[in-house]
Design brief:
Two copies of one chain form a homodimer. By secondary structure, chain A is of the alpha+beta class. Chain A is 45% helix and 18% strand. Chain A is globular, with a radius of gyration of 20 Å. Chain A starts with 8 loop residues before the first helix and ends in an 8-residue tail after the last helix. In chain A, strands 1-8-3-6 form a four-stranded antiparallel beta sheet. The first copy, chain A, has a four-stranded antiparallel beta sheet with strand order 2-7-4-5. Chains A and B meet through helix 1, strand 4, strand 5, strand 7 and helix 3 of A and helix 1, strand 4, strand 5, strand 7 and helix 3 of B. The first copy, chain A, binds a DNA duplex through helix 7.
Chain lengths: 273, 273
DNA sequence: CGCCACTTTGAATTAGCTCAAATTCCGTGG
DNA sequence: CCACGGAATTTGAGCTAATTCAAAGTGGCG
C-alpha cells in the first residue's frame, strides 16, 4: 500500500497542527460529505456545459475542428495562441519532462477546455491528444481576451473552467498520494463515470479508450497492477466486463465503487478476496 | 521504487502510441531541456512578481492582512468571495476529502495567488494555512472581475497566475507518479530552491517550515522515508544540514539536485550509497 | 487465418512501509 | 541558567504492497 500512514499517524499530525494553530476554529465548516452520486447535480452540470458551449458559439463564432484518435490538438513547446473547448470526444494530456519522463496528467471530456497551460509562458506545456473522434471549438486567445472585457459571461465561463481544472488536478494528486493501488483504479473509474454523468452521458457502461499501460501511467502504477486491480473489482462484483473484449466496463452502481475505496482504506477488516 | 517502468516499457508504449497516431509529427517541437538553473530567468521572474504586485496595489488598493504561522487565510467549504495574493511568507494548501483523507496539495510563495479553487463552486475546496509570518493582499473577486474589463493588465496577471498554477500542479503529479522516493525529495528541494530564486530570495540556504510528516504527506511517502532520503542526500554531499537543527538545509549547488534525480532514474549504475 | 498488440496471471524480488527504540531539539517553568 | 517533558527526527529490522520478469491467453484486423 502506498501510504496507510496518511490515514493514521500523518493525519493526526496534520490535524493537530491545524487544530493547535488555527486557534480552535479549524474544520467547523467542512463540505457536506458527498459520497453518494447526485442525479440532480449531474443534470444541472450537464445543462451548464450546454449553455457555456452555446455562449461561446454565439459570442465568438469559433472555428470548429474535427479530430480523430491520435490527433494532436497542440503539442508541448508549441507557441500558444489558442484555447480549445471540447464539444465531443475524449482527450488525454501528456506531459514530457526535460529529462524524458512522460506521463498522462489529465483526461478531458465534453465541455472541458484545453490549453490553459500555455497562457503563462506563451508555450504549451503538454500534448493534448485525441483518444477518439471528436470536435473542439478553436478559440483565439486574443479574441477571447478582448471579448471578455465586453462580455462578463465569457470571463465567468473562462474563470470557472480554469478554477475547476485547478481543483480537479488537486484531487488527482490526492488520489495518487493517499490511495492504495486498488482504490486508485476504483477512483479512476468513479471519476470517469461521474465525468460522463455530469455531461448527460450514460455512465453505467463506459468504454476505456486507454490501454492498461496508459491507465497505469496516469495513476502511477504498472500495467500489471492495473490489470490485477480491475480483475479484483470484477471479482468483487463492483464492475462487470462486457462479454467480448475488456475495454468495456459496466458499472451497475457507482456508489459501490466509493464503498470499495472505503473498504480498501479500512484498516482492520478481514474480508477474503 | 514507484515506477521504473514508466521510464522503460510504459514510456515506449506511450511514445509509440503518440508516434503512430500523431502521423509522424510527434515531438519535433520539444522545449529546450532546461536542466540547468538560469539566473537571468530568475531575475526576470522576480521582477515580474514585483510588477504584478505593484499593479494590483495601484489598481485595486486592496486591504492587506498580516498572518502568522498557523493562521488560516481561508478554509475548505467556506463561501468564496476573495482571492489573496502573497506579498511575503509561505503557505500550504491542504485538501480534505469527503472520506477524511487529508493532504498537502500545494506550497505557495510570494507573488502566488490563493483561492482560485473557490471560483467554480462558490466555495473554497481546500484550506490555505500560513506556515510563517507573512502578508497577503485581500482582493474581492467581484471587484477584480469588474476591474479586469477596464484593465487588461489585470486580466493578464490573473490568467497568468491561474495558468502557472495549472502547469505547476501537473509537474507535482508527474513528480509523484514517475520518481522514486529519493528523487522526489530531491525534486521537492529543487522546486523550493527554484521558487525562492525566482522571487529574488537566496536559495542556497532554505529553512524547511514543514515537519517530515508534512513533507511526506505532500510527496506521498512516510516521514521515515523522507528522513532517510534527506540523510542520503546529505551523505551524497548534495545538501548540508546546518550545525544546529535539521530544519535548515544548505544547497551548495542546485544543479547537483537535478543530477541526483537523474542518478536515481539511471537504470544500471552501481554506485554504493 | 495468422500476426501483433494488449491483457491476464503467476512467481520472485524489492522499494517503501510499519513498528520500535534511541536521540535531539525546543519551549516552559523552577 | 538549567532541568524537564513533549514533539520531531533518525536509524534499524522486518514485512508487505507493488514491481519486475516471464509465460500464456485473447481479440482485432489485414
Amino acid at each position: 500500500m502506498l501510504n496507510t500512514q496518511i490515514a493514521t499517524a500523518a493525519q493526526v499530525t496534520l490535524a493537530s497542527t491545524l487544530a493547535t494553530s488555527a486557534k480552535g476554529a479549524a474544520h467547523t465548516l467542512l463540505h457536506a460529505p458527498v459520497l453518494k452520486s447526485d442525479a440532480a447535480a449531474n443534470q444541472r452540470a450537464s445543462q451548464h456545459v450546454a449553455e457555456t458551449l452555446k455562449l461561446l458559439i454565439e459570442k465568438l463564432a469559433p472555428q470548429r475542428r474535427v479530430v480523430h484518435a491520435g490527433d494532436l490538438v497542440y503539442q508541448g513547446g508549441e507557441s500558444f495562441g489558442h484555447l480549445y473547448v471540447m464539444t465531443s470526444g475524449f482527450f488525454k494530456l501528456v506531459n514530457l519532462s526535460a529529462d524524458g519522463r512522460e506521463q498522462v496528467v489529465g483526461l478531458k471530456f465534453r465541455g472541458d477546455w484545453l490549453g490553459f497551460d500555455g497562457i503563462a509562458n506563451g508555450r504549451y506545456a503538454c500534448d493534448a491528444v485525441a483518444m477518439d473522434t471528436g470536435e473542439v471549438l478553436v478559440i483565439r486567445y486574443d479574441a477571447l481576451f478582448a471579448a471578455c472585457a465586453a462580455q462578463p459571461a465569457l470571463m465567468t465561463a473562462l474563470h470557472e473552467a480554469m478554477s475547476r481544472e485547478i481543483a480537479r488536478d488537486r484531487d488527482s494528486l490526492m488520489s495518487v498520494c493517499t490511495l492504495p493501488a486498488d482504490a486508485r483504479v476504483a477512483d479512476f473509474l468513479r471519476y470517469w463515470a461521474e465525468s460522463l454523468a455530469r455531461r448527460g452521458l450514460r455512465s453505467d457502461q463506459i468504454t476505456l479508450r486507454m490501454t492498461r499501460a496508459e491507465i497505469g501511467n496516469y495513476l502511477g502504477m504498472t500495467l500489471e497492477t492495473v490489470s490485477r486491480s480491475l480483475s479484483k473489482l470484477a471479482r468483487a462484483g463492483v464492475i462487470l466486463f462486457a462479454e467480448k473484449g475488456r475495454r468495456d466496463v459496466q458499472i451497475p452502481d457507482v456508489d459501490a465503487l466509493s464503498e470499495f475505496i472505503q473498504h480498501c482504506l479500512a484498516p482492520a477488516s478481514a474480508v477474503l478476496q
